[in-house]
Amino acid sequence: MALRFLPNFTASRSIFSTFLSRIASCEFAHKNQQSSFHTSAVNNKVEGWYDQNEWVYPPQKPGEPRRPAWVNHCRENIKYSPKTMWYIACLVRGMSVDEAIKQLSFIPKKGAVIAKEVIEEAQELAVKEHNVEYKSNLWVAQSFVGKSIIVKGLRKHARMRFGVVHYRYCHYFVRLVEGPPPKHYYKPELTGNEKLEEYFAELRSRRIHRTL
Q1: If DSSP codes are grouped into helix, strand and coil, which group holds residue 75?
Q2: Coiled-coil segments, which residues (predicted)?
Q3: Contact (Cβ atoms closer than 8 angstroms) between residue 171 and residue 74
């Protein structure tokens, strides 16, 4: 439709060529939109995450400690920025399920509501399909974000200029493991005495090249 009015356009040649190139890119952008999504790699990542729920382990030996149950869950194609969702995903790592749900309930962000719903779904899935006796006896072992499709749009500017807008989508992955959460999910920082002992051990382990 926009190309019909171009012959009546009486602006300068440089502006005309710029306008024509931008309109042509808009006319044909939707034809190549599906090819720029790259959905194959994204779908393989999500399917591989769900496939881990079907893993079967060999029987345990007598006296071997019981293997804790765990469950993987995911929500695909969330209309939310992956970078913003990353902060929320990092918050609940290493927490118990009840504590993670409690913390997410007080965060006024869209991503917090989504993460809370995904964790609650995984909690119910663990009880129904993975032989977890108490739904409160779980902790968040993994919580991370994956990049999904990016839809490109146009935004009009002054003097017949256009800007590209990226509508970003993401996947949210979570893994719940049966049992109490660990005391330290991340390795704690060494104290002053521990750093000193580590430095002395490094000095004592030095070796002069080409000597005994």
Answers
A1: strand
A2: none
A3: yes
Convert the pLDDT of each residue in 47-93 to its tens digit.
889 999 999 999 999 999 999 999 999 999 999 999 999 999 999 99
CA distance 53 to 13: 62
Q: Which amino acid is at 92?
A: V
How many Cα atoms within 13 Å fall on the side-chain side of residue 9?
17
Residue 186's φ and ψ, nearest 5 degrees, are -95, 150
State which amino acid sits at residue 204: R
In three state form, how does the secondary structure of 93-104 look?
Answer: CCCEHHHHHHHH
- Could you give the count of Cα atoms lying within 13 Å of 124 in the half-sphere of its Cβ? 5
User: What pTM was estimated for this model as a whole?
Assistant: 0.74
Structure tokens at 174: 């979570």
Distance CA 109, CA 89 (A): 12
Q: Order of strands, edge to edge, in the sheet holding 138-156? A: 70-78, 162-178, 138-156
Look up residue 108 and give its DSSP letter.
-
